[in-house]
């Protein structure tokens, strides 16, 4: 395609332009002005030139170079993004494998066997003693602690065979029932009182603990603050109004009530505690008796209990 810029200008007369060179000097700038005007008007109409075959779109060279640069950058960005995706997929697959391995390994280490019920439990369901590291399920250790507290024990021993450790009391307090915890606190408070200051109400349906904080004065008749009944603090029996303590101690069933009590004790085979003189009845178990005053004796012969006790004869 070619554009023809040929045109003809009338040459001025020689009178106006005597010298031909002056005409060509003037015609040069005029022709340049006409060409620039034509190009500008054509661009104003449309940045295209129609030919017989196709339409040609004119763009500045800077725009073309910028678009090519953008295309190259887009291709590079896509390639980089695809590479990052591959790396992330590989890392995710590796991490997934590690998680599964760690999960399987941790599952096997979290399972423990209770030494009491022999059931397999997860570690969070197990009580692990801090002093000996023996583990038991919370259900079994709660029952064990409750039984020990019912037997008036201040400390709870580890149920593991041949283990001499005691259970962690701070953790036990979090798992045992509230009423059992109250009973345990009462036992612990009672253990802080000297034996010489302790006194129990002799009536079996009361048996409340009393404290004699003034041992210098001998107290005989005492009213129980719980059941409001009178008893002798020296003889530790219901109040003997007609006898002194010395006279009451010499009685051998002279009174009808005493005779009935002695007869009932013989019939039931009750034994007297050598320490507090209270009657004790054994319903089941061995002959090793622990009285409520904490004195341990043999139910068969009545002597103080020892670790090598045995082969005793019934006392008369």
From TrEMBL:
Catalytic activities: [E2 ubiquitin-conjugating enzyme]-S-ubiquitinyl-L-cysteine + [acceptor protein]-L-lysine = [E2 ubiquitin-conjugating enzyme]-L-cysteine + [acceptor protein]-N(6)-ubiquitinyl-L-lysine
Record-level Gene Ontology MF annotations: ubiquitin protein ligase activity; zinc ion binding
Lineage start: Eukaryota, Viridiplantae, Streptophyta, Embryophyta, Tracheophyta
CC cofactor: Zn(2+)
Entry-linked SMART domains: IBR, RING
Keyword set, alphabetical order: Membrane, Metal-binding, Repeat, Transferase, Transmembrane, Transmembrane helix, Ubl conjugation pathway, Zinc, Zinc-finger
Membrane-spanning ranges: 22-40
Pfam family name, one: zf-C3HC4
Ranges of residues in domain RING-type: 110-316, 114-159
PROSITE patterns in UniProt: TRIAD, ZF_RING_1, ZF_RING_2
Species of the source: Deinandra increscens subsp. villosa
Name assigned to this protein: RBR-type E3 ubiquitin transferase
């Amino acid at each position: 395609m070619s554009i023809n810029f040929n045109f003809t200008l009338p040459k001025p007369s020689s009178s106006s332009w005597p010298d031909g060179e002056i005409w060509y000097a003037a015609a040069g700038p005029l022709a340049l002005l006409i060409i620039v005007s034509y190009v500008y008007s054509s661009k104003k109409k449309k940045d295209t030139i129609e030919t017989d075959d196709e339409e040609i779109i004119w763009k500045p060279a800077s725009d073309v170079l910028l678009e090519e640069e953008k295309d190259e950058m887009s291709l590079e960005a896509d390639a980089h993004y695809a590479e990052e995706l591959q790396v992330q997929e590989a890392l995710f697959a590796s991490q997934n494998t590690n998680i599964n391995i760690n999960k399987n390994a941790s599952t096997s280490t979290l399972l423990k066997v209770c030494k009491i019920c022999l059931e397999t439990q997860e570690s969070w369901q197990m009580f692990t003693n801090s002093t000996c590291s023996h583990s038991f399920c919370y259900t079994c250790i709660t029952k064990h602690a409750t039984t020990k507290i019912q037997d008036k024990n201040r400390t709870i021993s580890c149920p593991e065979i041949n283990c001499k450790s005691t259970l962690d009391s701070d953790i036990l307090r979090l798992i045992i029932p509230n009423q059992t915890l109250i009973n345990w606190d009462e036992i612990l408070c009672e253990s802080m009182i000297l034996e010489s200051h302790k006194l129990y109400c002799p009536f079996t349906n009361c048996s409340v603990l009393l404290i004699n904080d003034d041992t210098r004065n001998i107290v005989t008749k005492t009213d129980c603050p719980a059941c409001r009944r009178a008893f002798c603090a020296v003889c530790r029996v219901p109040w003997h109004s007609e006898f002194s303590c010395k006279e009451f101690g010499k009685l051998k069933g002279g009174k009808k009530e005493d005779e009935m009590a002695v007869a009932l004790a013989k019939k039931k085979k009750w034994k007297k505690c050598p320490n507090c003189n209270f009657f004790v009845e054994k319903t089941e178990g061995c002959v090793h008796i622990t009285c409520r005053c904490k004195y341990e004796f043999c139910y068969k012969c009545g002597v103080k209990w020892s670790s090598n006790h045995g082969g005793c004869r019934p006392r008369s």
